[in-house]
Structures are given as structure tokens and as C-alpha cells.
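Data card: per-record layout.
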Amino acid sequence: MFDIGFTELLVIAVVALVVIGPEKLPGAIRTGSVWVGRLKRSYQDIKREVELEIHNSEVLEKLQRAEAEIKEQINPGIQSLIEDSAEAARTPGSESPTEASAKTPQTLGDESSTEPSAKTPQTPGDESNRNE
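The structure for this 132-residue chain is written out next.
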């Protein structure tokens, strides 16, 4: 961070010893180290928050790109479905794709089969069908 060599530190220590004095120098060093520790923690906290914001913005950009890609893939399919539905609506007598898919195999089969059959199945315990 700072380009301070051993000789510069030695000069600063001698000046501090002369200016502050030998009795108050240990307290001044403690106070200075507390402030340096606070500055380091503040710097680390700010660095962490900036990295988090950068990461969040990267994730947000990735999500936006993914959303755009999904929309590009889905829009042609939706457009073709709309065109098919519009074409089916313009053609008289044709049924829409939703009506065709709504029919079940029973409704597509024999329409008269909804009435009960005249011939009832025989069961093993049925007394009327037994030959004696």
C-alpha cells in the first residue's frame, strides 16, 4: 500500500518518541493501532459490499439475457399458434385447435354409444341365463 522502508519507520519512531515522550508513547501506539484496525475493517466491509453489488449486477444481467433468450424462443411458437387459431376461425365448419384437443376418445367414437346397450352382459351368478 505505502512504500515505506525500515529507515522511514525508524525515523518516524524516533520523532514520535521525542515529540510524545516515553510515558505517553505506548498509549499513543495503542490508539493508533486501534484506528488503523478500524480503517482496515471499514475498507474490508466496503470492499465486500462493492463485490456483492458487482456480483448481484452480474447475476441480474445473466437473468435478463436468459429472459430475452427464452422470449426469443417462445415468441415464434406463440405466433404460429395464433396464426393457426386465426386460420381455423376463418375457415367455416372447422373446429379450433382447442376444441379438437378437448374431445376425448369417447366423444370421438360412436356418438350413439351413450345409450345403454340392449344386450346386457351375462354374469356367472345370473339365474335367468342358466340352462337346466
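Known properties of this structure: Residues 107-115 have pLDDT under 50 and may be disordered. Residues 12-90 form one domain.

See the next section for split statistics.
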